[in-house]
Design brief:
Length: 519
């Protein structure tokens, strides 16, 4: 560390001469990590504790180095108060390496104070003054399908994590299904880790899977590092043709109550969480009687009762295994919210909930006829339902917002026929989520800081990463993004989107706020 013990920064009062921001930037550019500022040339001079406090206030949030202050002796003043006032200021220093975009936006491995870095750690870096833009903690998207290995024509680690980084997401946690093999054994996890090596532009974690018959694999998967486990209470819809069969088989089959009891017995008391696709099949109107190109036909085939019945079962099981946190993925139905509140507030059960960007920004009445790119399970519901999801998010019943990014090849979306009933269910918003959410939140007067809680700090807690991610603090990973709230844009093909397959022209409404990159 190289200190400079004789510096005039002239603030407050003469910032046209110099100031804390410009002066400490200049110091840092030459390897100086600490300056001690002289008492004169500022207005007021540092000759009383009150004047010192004025100077400390002016320095707050501006300094790129650590800073101390000399007091001044003039006729008639007492220095005893100044001597005991602790006249120094330390603030976090956040720096970005001088590296062009080419392998993803790289940052220091963790956030340091300038005191920690010293000369050799500092002079290698270029300081990036972002002006009035916001430096935010990188988002953690805890619900992403990247489909590799096995289905890289749908998506892959490289394209998926590039898309994530383009939207300020610095960590993704990848779901166990849609890849071949699924993450249901340690061997399969190792296969996935091998496929991911040297491809990822963000940090990445993995969820394991619970399927019928793999309860013996669960504790070894915990030991191998999966962040938790995902299961389905309804058929997942992803199929494969095994070499031993002449027919398609569900490669990630749903579990029944007996399967769940076996799994929860193994997982209770472990440092893990059990995630539920919370839809439970039940009676519905015959979908064959409706027009398959009409979104309402699909919507009626996945009623809210699918979700409420599933969550009632989860609460029942959680009362038997209360030491295992359970988590509802992609909540869509507002009618399930009172069940969640009762489980948490009255039964004191460890139950957390997520919803998705598309449920908070799209409504069923907006979905055109014959446009199955809007199909997902559970489905996007009406505007009244959406408002109740926002209310639950604001009061803390819903803990976080994720993408459930689930891409596929164009053919599976049935864009030519417009058939909602036959199309793959999944929406791809990786890289767009913060802009979508920010635009909707501004209309409701919701502070931007709340979005960071839902998309970064709470998702970090959920995935067991809060010790090093989900905030800006010394010692945490230096996962930073720069947010420009003033930019407006419209989503079109080839504009700021990174994808594996081909897409049709898509024009959407205007959105506000983008992540800025350093060239």
């Amino acid at each position: 560390m190289v200190p400079s013990a004789h510096v005039h920064l002239n603030e407050p009062g003469r910032t046209e001469w110099e100031g804390f921001r410009t002066g400490t930037q200049a110091a840092a550019s030459g390897g100086c990590t600490t300056v001690v500022e002289m008492p004169l040339n500022s207005c007021p001079p540092t000759t009383t504790v009150a004047n010192l406090n004025t100077k400390l206030s002016a320095a707050k949030g501006q300094c790129w180095t650590d800073i101390g202050f000399w007091g001044g002796v003039i006729p008639g003043n007492s220095v005893s108060g100044l001597a005991t006032s602790g006249s120094s200021w330390r603030q976090r220093l956040q720096v970005l390496p001088h590296r062009k975009w080419g392998r993803g936006p790289s940052v220091l491995p963790r956030i340091f104070s300038s005191h920690d870095l010293g000369l050799t750690g500092l002079v290698k870096f270029l300081f990036w003054d972002v002006g009035d833009k916001a430096i935010i903690p990188g988002l953690i998207d805890a619900h992403v399908h990247l489909n590799e290995p096995g289905r890289t024509d749908w998506e892959g680690f490289r394209t998926g994590t590039q898309a994530a980084a383009s939207g300020g997401c610095t960590t993704v946690v990848e779901m166990p299904l849609n890849s071949l093999p699924p993450t249901t054994t340690v061997a399969n996890l190792n296969t996935k880790l091998g496929a991911a090596k040297d491809q990822c532009w963000t940090d990445i974690g993995f969820w394991g899977g619970v399927i019928p018959g793999n309860s013996a694999d669960l504790q070894p998967l915990v030991a191998a590092g999966v962040k938790g486990f995902k299961c389905f209470l309804i058929e997942s819809g992803v199929e494969v043709r095994p070499s031993s069969l002449n027919r398609m088989a569900d490669e990630f089959p749903c579990v029944n109550e007996h399967d769940l009891e076996l799994a929860m017995e193994k997982l209770q008391g472990q440092p893990t969480v059990l995630l539920f696709h919370a839809e439970l099949d039940g009676p519905v109107n015959d979908p064959d009687t409706g027009d398959p190109t009409d979104y309402d036909t699909f919507l009626k085939s996945r009623p809210e009762t699918f979700e409420t019945d599933a969550i009632k079962l989860i609460v029942k099981l959680l009362q038997k295994y209360p030491l295992l946190r359970c988590h509802i993925v992609h909540l869509s139905a507002h009618s399930a919210i009172p069940i969640v509140r009762y489980a948490r507030n009255e039964l004191k059960l460890p139950l957390t909930v997520e919803t998705c960007f598309h449920y908070l920004t799209l409504t069923s009445n907006e979905i055109p006829k014959g446009q199955p790119q809007f199909k997902c399970c559970p489905p996007i519901r009406d505007a009244e339902n959406q408002e109740k999801l926002w209310e639950a998010l604001l009061d803390g019943t819903i803990d976080m917002v994720v993408s459930d990014h689930s891409p596929c090849v164009t053919e599976l979306k049935k864009l030519e026929t417009g058939d909602f009933m036959d199309a793959w269910g999944g929406i791809s918003t990786l890289g767009l989520g913060l802009s979508l959410l920010s635009t909707a939140a501004q209309k409701r007067g919701i502070p931007f800081e709340r979005l960071l809680t839902w998309c970064s700090s709470n998702t970090a807690l959920h995935a067991g990463l809060a010790d090093r991610k989900g905030g800006l603090a010394v010692g945490k990973d230096a996962d930073l993004a720069v947010w420009d709230a003033e930019v407006e844009f419209t989503v079109r093909r080839f504009q700021a989107l990174i994808y594996a397959g081909s897409l049709k022209e898509s024009r959407g409404p205007g959105y506000e706020g983008v992540i800025e990159f350093q060239e």
